[in-house]
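Re: Re: ligand-bound prediction request (bumping)

Still looking for help on this. To restate: I need the protein modeled with adenosine-5'-diphosphate bound, output as structure tokens. Inputs repeated here so nobody has to scroll up.
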Amino acid sequence: MNRASIRTIIFLATVSLVGIIATQYFWVKNAYNLEEKQFNEQVHFALRNVSRKLLKMNKDESEIVNPVKQMSSNYYIAFINDTVHPFLLKTLLKKEFNARNINIDFEYVIYDCFTDSIVFDDYVAIDKEDKNELQSQSQEMKWDRDGHYFGVYFPSKRTYIMNEMGIWVFSSSIILIIVIFFAYTINVILKQKRLSEIKNDFINNITHEFKTPISTISLSAEVLMQPNIVNEPERLKNYANIIKDENNRLKNQVDKVLQLATLEIDKLKLENEPIDIHELINESVKSFEVIIEHQEGKITTYLGAKKTQLIGDKVHISNILYNLIDNAIKYSPNNPRIEISTENYFSGIEITVKDNGIGIPKEHQKHIFEKFYRVPTGNVHNVKGFGLGLNYIKTIVEAYNGKIKLISKENEGTTFIVKLPFNT
Ligand code: ADP
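Reply:
Sorry for the wait, this slipped through. Here it is.
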């Protein structure tokens, strides 16, 4: 799938999802408003009935046309200006609410008309038959004073309405699941795409890396097959050297891919033999002597560790050192100055490889240990590689319960720090 079609898919899917979410939001909001309107009406009717009944019981002839006022979204007041007995009010309220299927906790408050102060308030939990102290007190109270009005407050009105909208909550949850699933799918598509790009890069690299030495060797062999070449021993030697060098190069590339193949085998087989880390470092540095001289660079070692023996696999640990030094040279275009140092920490050896190369931009640092990952250089890779070395190093280091970290600054250089426990 190419980039344009992925973009189109993501765009269309996002537009349709936004459409679905907007429609859902519109309908849910409408449904909520409708539900709330019904609730308010029912409460109005209930409170109006309670007011009428209270007036009737008090033998008050006055007819208040509309005593109920909604003060806020969940607070209602009935202005009746009459005697209001708490227990009676509560009983009437419960009865009226029950008749209208309003099964929600509420708080009722009785006010004094003259001072507008609260003279009584109580909380009624609908599913609890509360025989609390306040209630028994309220039953015994004598209320023969005139001039009260009452208010009813529903603390959990919003939740109650939401609960009443079960089907909407269900459909919204389904849409949420779809959105999460969509985000996950897009993430997988993008990951797969990156992986396939990386693999393509790898194949291109490997083809290029193998083709060049093979054709050079083939051309040199042709020259060596010329009958009169024996008369030109210098030329013969030259071509033989070319074949040897290219063969070495080929061997290095094959080794790198084989390192990967070793890791692919489910269980990494590691030898556990005593090795001297300083010996391995000196050997690795030696193998780079020619190339470092050719690039007019320098490798300096500060081997400060006192305890230098550890138990590990000589081949793999040499490969770690080899890969780190190789990278330090590869990514330091001008006169590489490489410093390798060691020191002991309480349970092992810390090896540091520092270069003065191009550095690794911050945003790529967390990725460079991923398999096939190479810091993108805008399609021009003047330094060849497969993006396997660091992944291999990390796998081996972690297999020995060690740690690898890096400190790097663009255009200033990179330092890799490897901690390997003694494993004794
Ligand atoms: P390769 O070097 O074969 O591409 P590696 O896994 O060894 O693969 O390294 C991954 C990437 O990390 C490299 O492509 C390079 O971009 C970056 N990198 C590794 N070592 C260094 C270094 N010493 N200096 C700068 N960049 C580095």
